[in-house]
Automatic annotation (TrEMBL):
This is LRP2-binding protein. Its main location: cytoplasm. The keyword Cytoplasm applies. The keyword Transmembrane does not apply. GO terms for cellular component: cytoplasm. Keywords: Cytoplasm, Repeat, TPR repeat.
């Protein structure tokens, strides 16, 4: 019977008594405190001494993300070694009769290996292999990795290599149904612009509002854009004024590029309102400062918005 996580001093005592899970628990405690060298040592003990696959997975994560120096790991190519660990974990049994923890561990390894193939870190970049790993990880929505894989598939199918927008919409819908705020934000954008689905502003408003309330900056920025196009300038200014001073980026699955784009959108649209006095008292000085910030966050998006303004489309 698996015990709930005990206190640190108790774990050390159990480790001394030969409990096979304790090295992993101690490693996890240090990992969450960002004491990565200590975490590495305990995870390595868990894997090398007890063949604990959870410890092995965490070693892979630490190698892939370069959380420990090569002087400590003694590994010349951390990403390649991480991918080797993930591949080995993927060979574990995932049948229904298998322990849930083991199944989820395999799906997590598959997601991370898919990410490696997509990014080309530790393995040769391959959309085909990334797709294979993500599809395997998304096999069942019973773990965080499966949901992340469903979101990743949504992005992969909307990319230039595959470009099947209907499948992209379907995978984002599945991920959203399983709780992904990132996919919910993307669905709002797809409904807003009619990408892979018929344009539907009611559904766009619902998805963007829900994802925004759950903390998605990307959803909030597109909600601001939605309000701007509907000439609801008071709503634009209310949301944007709070967002442009926000420095609390989400650290879950939201991609930094989208966060920068979101900040650029909010700054630019709020600046337009300030410059013309729509929904807020006119303030050209602040408007110019925000135009500059928009460029700093995402120069290509700011340039596109400038062209839309010149063409009278924004």
């Amino acid at each position: 019977m698996e015990r709930s996580r005990p206190k640190k001093f108790t774990i050390v005592k159990w480790l001394d008594e030969g409990d096979e899970q304790c090295a992993f628990y101690l490693g996890q405690i240090y990992f969450e405190k960002e004491k990565y060298n200590e975490a590495w040592n305990y995870f390595r003990m868990g894997y090398e001494k007890f063949n604990d696959q959870k410890s092995k997975f965490q070693l892979g994560i630490m190698l892939y993300d370069n959380l420990v120096s090569k002087d400590v790991t003694k590994v010349s190519n951390p990403q390649a070694k991480a991918c080797e660990f993930f591949k080995e974990i993927m060979t574990l049994d995932v049948q229904i009769a298998s322990p849930v923890d083991q199944r989820n561990l395999v799906f997590s390894a598959a997601f991370n290996l898919g990410r490696a193939y997509y990014q080309g870190y530790g393995v040769c970049s391959s959309t085909e292999d990334a797709l294979r790993c993500f599809l395997f990880a998304a096999n069942n929505g019973d773990s965080k990795a499966c949901i992340s894989a469903q979101t990743a598939l949504g992005y992969l199918y909307s990319g230039p290599e595959i470009c099947d927008l209907q499948k992209a919409f379907q995978w984002h819908s599945d991920a959203c149904g399983n709780g992904s705020v990132e996919s919910q934000a993307v669905l709002g954008v797809m409904y807003l612009y009619g990408i892979g689905v018929k344009e539907d502003w009611d559904n766009a408003l619902f998805c963007l509002s829900e994802a925004s309330a759950r903390g998605s900056l990307y959803a909030k920025a597109n909600l601001i854009y939605f309000y701007y196009r509907r000439k609801m300038f008071t709503n634009v200014c209310y949301l944007a004024s709070r967002m442009v001073t926000c420095d609390n980026f989400m650290t879950s699955e939201c991609i930094q590029t989208f966060q920068c784009r979101a900040m650029s959108m909010a700054c630019f649209l709020y600046a337009l309102c300030l410059k013309s006095g729509k929904g807020v008292q006119k303030d050209e000085l602040l408007a110019n400062q925000l135009f500059s910030k928009s460029v700093e966050w995402d120069s290509s998006l700011a340039a596109r918005y400038v062209n839309l303004v010149i063409a009278g489309e924004l």
